[in-house]
Amino acid sequence: TRRIALAARPVGEPRASDFRTEQTELPALRDGDVLLRIVYLSLDPYMRGRMSTARSYAQPMEIGDTMVGGTVAQVVESRARSLAVGDYVLSYSGWQTHAVAPARLLRKLDPRLAPLSTALGVLGMPGFTAYVGLKEIGKPLAGETLVVAAASGPVGATVGQLAKIRHARIVGIAGGAEKCRYLVDELNFDEAIDHRAADFAAQLEDACPRGIDVYFENVGGAVWSAVLPLLNDFARIPVCGLVAQYNATDVPAGPDRMPGLMREILSRHLTLRGFIQSDFAHLQRDFEREMSVWLQAGRIRYREDIVDGLDHAPEAFIGLLRGKNFGKLIVRVADE
Ligand code: NDP
C-alpha cells in the first residue's frame, strides 16, 4: 500500500514536512478479514487534534502512524462470509491506497441508495453531528434565530437546513462572498455573513434583530466573541468544534474574559454543552432513516469538494483549516 504517515507533530499550522508518503507491506489476511481498495478518503478538522499531544477526547497518533480517517472502499479479496469481492464498505482505513480490515468493523454500503461519497458527508459522520447537535442540544423552535459558522461545510450546511425544516430563521457565517451567496441562493439561509469583513460584528447584529436563540458553535475565536453579546435568555449553544483555534499555539493576549463569560452564562440562563457525535450512537438509525428521506425529497442539499489523488491529501488538509475547501472535503484515492 502507499500511505501517508505523520512525520512530525505540527507547531501551529501543519506543513507539508509534517507528512511522509511511503510504500509499506500489508499484513496477510486472516479469517474474517478483507483486503480493501480505498476509493474515497474523508478529510476532517478533528485530524489536526490527533496530530498533536494536547489533551483531547481521542488518543493522539504516534509519529510514523498512518494518518487516520474515514474511507469508502471496495473489497478486492475476502476471507469473511459477510462481504464479497466488489462490495463497497465504510471503513476507517486512513490515508492509504489499500488496507486489510476485519469485516465486522465495516459497514456495507449500497451504491444504488445514495452516491458512495455521501457516506463520508451528509449521510455520514458530519451529517450525523449536525443532526444530533440540533436534536439533543440546540432544539431550535419555529421563529427562533439560529446562527451557525463554517456554514458551507458539511456540518454547518446541514445544521442550517435542518433548522430550516423546523422553521427557524437561519443566519450563516462563512468566509468569502461566494460561500455566502451559496448559503442564501442554494440552501435558503435567511442571511449569510462573511466573517472576514471588517465590520463583521456589526453585520451580525443587523442580521439578528431579535437576538440569537441557538448558536451552533463550529469555530470559536472571533466569531464566538461577536455572537456572545447577541445571545438571548435561555439560548442554547451546542459546542461542536473550535476550528479557528486548532492551529493556535498559545492563548491570545489581553484581559481575562473568563469571569465576564461566567456572568453571561448565569445571568442569561445560557446552556453551553460540548458534545462528540459518538455520544449519541443510539440515534444513528433514526438519522439514517430521516436524512435519506430529506435528501431524496431535496429538502437537504449538499456540496462536495473532491480532490484527486492521495498525494494531494496533505495540501488539501492544510487548506481545510484555512477555509480553502468549499463543501465536504474528500480525496478521490481511486475511481469507483
Ligand atoms: P468544514 O468543511 O466546515 O471546514 C472547516 C471550515 O471552518 C473551513 O472551511 C472554514 O470555512 C472554517 N474556518 C476555519 N477557520 C476559521 C476561522 N478562523 N473563523 C471562522 N471559520 C473558520 O468542516 P466540518 O463541517 O467537517 O466541521 C465543522 C466543525 O465541526 C469543526 O470545528 C469540526 O471540528 C467540528 N466537528 C465536530 C464533531 C463532534 O463530534 N463534535 C464531529 C464533526 C465535526 P470558512 O471559509 O467559512 O471560514
TrEMBL record:
Domain Enoyl reductase (ER): 12-331
Coiled-coil residue spans: none
One matching Pfam family: ADH_N_2
Top-level taxon in the UniProt lineage: Bacteria
The entry's keywords: Oxidoreductase
Molecular functions (GO terms): oxidoreductase activity, acting on the CH-CH group of donors, NAD or NADP as acceptor
PANTHER family: PROSTAGLANDIN REDUCTASE (PTHR43205), PROSTAGLANDIN REDUCTASE 1 (PTHR43205:SF7)
Listed name of the protein: NADP-dependent oxidoreductase
Lineage: Bacteria, Pseudomonadati, Pseudomonadota, Gammaproteobacteria, Nevskiales
